[in-house]
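Today's session is about reading a structure prediction critically. Students often jump straight to the picture, but the first step is always the sequence itself: look for stretches that repeat, for charged clusters, for runs of hydrophobic residues. Only then move on to the predicted structure, which in these notes is written as discrete structure tokens rather than atom positions. Here is the chain we will use throughout the hour.
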Amino acid sequence: MKRSNAVRFAAIAAAGALALTACDNAGEEGAGGGGEDSASEVKVGLAYDVGGRGDRSFNDSAYRGLEQAAEELGVETTDFEPTDGEADSAKEERLAMMAEEGYDVVIAVGFAYDGAIQAVAPEYPDVDFAIVDSEIPEIDNVTSLVFAEEQASFLAGAAAALTTEEDHVGFIGGVETPLINKFEAGYVAGVAHVDENINVEVDYLSQPPDFSGFSDPAKGRELAQAQYDRGADVIYHAAGASGNGVLESAVANDFTFIGVDSDQYENADEEQKPYVLTSAIKQVDVAVFELIQAATEGDVEGGIQRFELADGGVDYTLSNAEAIGPIQDQLDEIKQQIIDGEIEVPSEP
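Below is the predicted structure for this chain, in token form.
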């Protein structure tokens, strides 16, 4: 069954314009691969969240999974950028356009696509849709890839508490939504688990429906500066591309930075690396790759797939061994206590 004619025609008309938002170098680094030597005929489209590729965090993690699928599975892939401040209808058109253009798998990165997936997926039952960070259990051809962000954030909070010299740390969220509240809740609880007397600053860059907080590095730097001026010497962010500004502020002011979603030590500039203590990661890349792999095998189950500490779906990073090494044993003990259920991590502030 296809979409109603009016919306279908709108999707087709929009295809040319939306194609221009596909990443220009998709074919140069793996995504956009495939071609004559493809091992698979599966065609995959991925639509980024606010901030797009290059955020060094959430979207880049999804891209790594897409790139791996192109290289290892031989699938044909294309990735699509959002536009700043776009309407929800643009998200619907982007997803519908991919379905109309013959994509077998359509992946939406971020909860902002929740409404668009629910509107479009039922009209294309032969297409496997997936959404990262949102639960949509009632549509057979939709797979929800969700993560226990609060568990990794708990470890980030414990790391902050174990390294602060001022007993004063910070959290910067991109947009105050239930998802980002999970990061805050875990972080604050992790700090308190180590020392409930440590002061925790909590600030958000924007409020819904303004999602610019995920794509404003200048504002991220400004807010990090404000937290530092109030005494915070370790700051953790869950702010997408805005986190790049937080890291810039860490370098400028000599405080400790904790990254999110991707290993932000690995993708930091050389002069930034010493300031990155660790990152609370979620394996979006692994989830995306495994979903595409299942599609090549005709084995996409749909429904909700959850990733947490127990299965390695979330974790903290060890890349900056000099910085994280002295507290690794303590963090690993806390990590095991979470896995064993001895520590219950809150998902709401």
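Discussion point for the tutorial: Residues 12-20, 24-30, 34-38 have pLDDT under 50 and may be disordered.
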